[in-house]
Amino acid sequence: SYELTQPPSVSVSPGQTARITCSGDALPKKYAYWYQQKSGQAPVLVIYEDNKRPSGIPERFSGSSSGTKATLTISGAPEADEGDYYCFSTDSSGNHWVFGGGTKLTVL
Amino acid sequence: QVQLVESGGGVVQPGRSLRLSCAASGFTFSDYGVHWVRQAPGKGLEWVAVISYDGSDKYYADSVKGRFTISRDNSKNTLYLQMDSLKAEDTAVYYCAKGLATNPYWGQGTLVTVSS
Fold this sequence. Notes:
The complex is a heterodimer of chains A (108) and B (116). Chain A is an all-beta fold and 108 residues long. Chain A has no helices and 9 strands. Chain A has strands at residues 9-12, 18-23, 33-37, 44-47, 61-66, 69-74, 83-90, 97-99, 103-107. In chain A, strands 1, 3, 4, 7, 8 and 9 form a 6-stranded mixed β-sheet that branches. In chain A, strands 2-6-5 form a 3-stranded antiparallel β-sheet, with no helix packed on it. In chain A, strand 3 and strand 4 (44-47) form a beta hairpin. Chain A is globular, with a radius of gyration of 13 Å. Chain B is mostly beta strands and 116 residues long. Chain B is built from no helices and 11 strands. Chain B has strands spanning 3-7, 10-12, 18-25, 34-39, 45-51, 58-60, 68-73, 78-83, 92-98, 105-106, 110-114. The chains are: A mainly beta (108), B mainly beta (116). Chain A binds chain B through residues 1, 31, 33, 35, 37, 42-43, 45, 48-49, 54, 84, 86, 88, 95-102, and chain B through 35, 37, 44-47, 50, 57, 59-62, 95, 100-104, 106, 108-109.
């Protein structure tokens, strides 16, 4: 079955840039989406279609995709951005969706 | 406003069945595909299944294929997940969700615990 691979954890100091990667064989042809989940809360979509920000998401969140890797970048991350981040995409058929394993972002 | 309200969770023994429901309101339910997503305690998100707007297309994660069945009743604005042959590893909070790739809405989730 199709898998998306993320690093388990990323740690940055407040105000630094955090980069979270997501690898998957279908990413050259399928969009990547990024969800943020804070403890005890429902997930929030922060990037869709590789690099688009939904309304209300701060400009410090950006996305890119090249080849089999998609990247979520948080520029100047404040402590409030701590949480779990999941990439989300489909397999090559476009019918089966999958979440990456999640990356715990620590801003400390 | 869009609301998705799951119900039907509980404690069930391994090998038994359970049916979850998700009542939708605040949008034209019959216009949208809808997903089930689960999250085991302390673990990550796992996509479970999706059903097209009219119920004609259904797709499942390999981990549940052949055991779970997604369905919908557009006359009742309700999504279902029939879960058979349950295993301990199916223990999770189950969420229904629409628009996961565009304008997502999630329910509050319902907890399913598979334990003897």
